[in-house]
Amino acid sequence: MKFLLEIGTEEIPAGFLPNGRTALKKSSEDILIKSGLTKFAITEYGSPRRLAILADNLPLKSNDSIETYKGPPLRVAFDSDGNPTKAAIGFAKKVGVNISEISKEGEYLIAKVHIPGRTLTEILSDAIPLIIESIPWPKSMRWNNSGKRFVRPVRWIVALLENNIVNAEWSGVIAGRNSFIRRMPNEKDLMSRPVPINSASEYVDTLRNANVIVDHRERIKFIRDGIEKKAKLIGAEPVLLSGEETFLYLCDHTEDPEIMVADFDTAFITAPREILELTMWRHQKYIPLIKNGKLISKFILVSNRTFGHSSNDEANERRYLNVILGNRRVLSARLSDAIFFWKTDIERPLISRAEDLAKVTFQKDAGTVLQRVERITALALRIAPILKHQDLKRVERAVRLSKADLTTKLVFEFPELQGVIGKRIALHQGEDLEIAESIEEHYWPIGADPRIPKGLSAIVALAEKADTLHSIFGVGLEPTGSADPYGLRRAALGIIRILLENKISFDITNLISGEKVLNFVRQRLVNYISETLKINIAVLEAVAASGWHNFVDFELRAIAASKLKERSDFEDMVTSFKRVMNILDSEEGRSSEPSQEKFVEPAEKDLFNAVSILDRNVAENLSNGNIEEALDEIAKMRPLVDKFFDEVLVNTDDLSLRINRKALLNRLGLIFLRIMDFSRL
Fold first, then answer.
1. Angstrom distance (rounded) from CA 393 to CA 372
2. 357-416 residue pLDDT tens
């Protein structure tokens, strides 16, 4: 059996629809399963004026069931003669069975009651109100005296089991078979265009024939294909500032989408491309177009069709042109504002804006943005020489300019353009290219964006992200659960990606300090490498135990460690390490170097010579990133270690000899630990 439920509303905000559809499907499944229905499938639909589900393969009735009820203890259920007491009789009456049908289980009475299955119609009548009320919304509203809440006023409900109406009511709305399509121009009546749904299985096709594409998947494909086709016709490419989310957002603004190409005044093209693109998409949800990598004075708009359904071709053409001209006027006004902001912002030297940052609060307990720039400057100047960047004046100027655009009108209007506007103004005012680029790039990486800052930009970016961590941790606002309002996880991940993807061999303690901050970054590093390289967390922890402050070195050792068990000599390494470390159960020998003159047995002399060679070879291989070769050297030690323990008594009564032998083993253990803690594998 097929069941259709459509909840007709006033226009639902596009941002609410994706989760609304998902929640409707899940709530329906949960409620129907709880009602005793099984083996059915649900498909969800939704557009600005409706949410719907279509359930297929529903059984005619729910299965019969047996409910078990626990009664009073036996000691109060029967008297001394074994007759049921009032407690037992009352229990039987309460659960609706004869006293003779009650049984004993342990120390209590038990009643097993047969519950006959309910008809599908009965179940659905009860389920519909529960389903509607169970959908969670970020914001909901009341609109009548029923006290019910929903994201927008509910104007109709369609509830059909096959071709029969299911009796249900919610918030004063009685379920029927009439759906309604959106209002057309000059139509004010909310319920003016009824569309009867003959049966559940005809729902999607019936609305499509009434010019409503209710299936959001179909609308997304229609919009994607339409945008690509329109762009191709004029030899252009669409700029999708929100990626694939672009199509979902446009889909949830429309029920019968129409894709159109419009233009704007070519005079606006002289403004920075980013400003024009963001104005088009953010304010109006227009799709910018480019040719040969350059923005052109045309754009694509996706609108609900308000024309083309009339038999009057002239009226349809007039409406089409009105839509184009109306959107063109709106965009021109928006672009005029953006150009005015741009012209105003470039009149003032960017460096002069830096002092204005004293009026901008970074965080109330962490000071102003100007104070933050001072801290970033000190950090950048400290790490620049370590990163082989000797021109400290350029480093200082790059940091001084990095936040200056925060006081511009354009960044106030478009916060997501911070850095981009600064770079554009700097270049317009003749600033050095590398310094100008660092204004934008020090914010990188952004999310999963593959762009990573390099050179001067990397120095500023590392210092800026480190200051974010120090400042926010310093005022006690470290992330809790999923809440991270200051982007500390993003800052830590940015540092990790910059160092790893640029292959910068760098001790992170030159940049960050403090136990909490270091532990936070360490956890992000372990998680990042686990996710990107698919390495087990336990392996990464074993590697981190031997040091993680150099991210490039850590990653190389982690990769080698992840393949360790594939090596034929894996057991040799682990066994040698454990034998060495197990005997070092005290501080004896840990703080001293072994003395060759004190060795007596040939086996300990041989091991000493081998450890000395191993020390040099492992150090050289690790410095060159040759982790596998370092492991090869370690694996060769197994025979000498075994011979040492077979022929040498480590815990001898001679204190001097015992300490010297443990010092040798400690030195060998420390060489192992340069790669990882093998005992954790």
1. 18
2. 999 999 999 999 999 999 999 999 999 999 999 899 999 999 999 999 999 999 998 888
CA distance 145 to 78: 53
Task: Report the chain's mean pLDDT, rounded to a whole number.
Answer: 90
Burial of 569 (0-12, 13-18, 19+ CB in 10 A): middle
**Which pLDDT does position 587 carry in this prediction?**
61
Between CA 420 and CA 436 the distance in angstroms is 9
Domain boundaries, given as residue ranges, for the chain? 3-61+119-209, 65-115, 216-346, 350-536, 563-680
Q: Which two tokens stand for residue 665?
A: 């083993």
3 state SS of 105 = strand
Residue 130 near residue 147, CB atoms below 8 Å: no
Return the ∠ at Cα 41 (arms to 177 and 222), rounded to 5°.
70
Q: Helix (H, G, I), strand (E, B), or coil: what is residue 165?
A: strand
- Residue 301: pLDDT band by 50, 70, 90 thresholds? very high
CATH number of 350-536: 1.10.3210
List the one residue out of 36, 1, 23 whose CA is nearest residue 131.
Answer: 23
- What CATH fold (topology level) applies to the domain 563-680? Isoleucyl-tRNA Synthetase; Domain 1 (1.10.730)
Q: β-pairing, 294-304 with 257-263?
A: antiparallel
The model's confidence at residue 212, banded by pLDDT at 50, 70 and 90, is very high
The pTM assigned to this predicted structure is 0.68
Nearest Cα to 583, choosing from 673, 501, 663?
663
430-456 average pLDDT score: 93
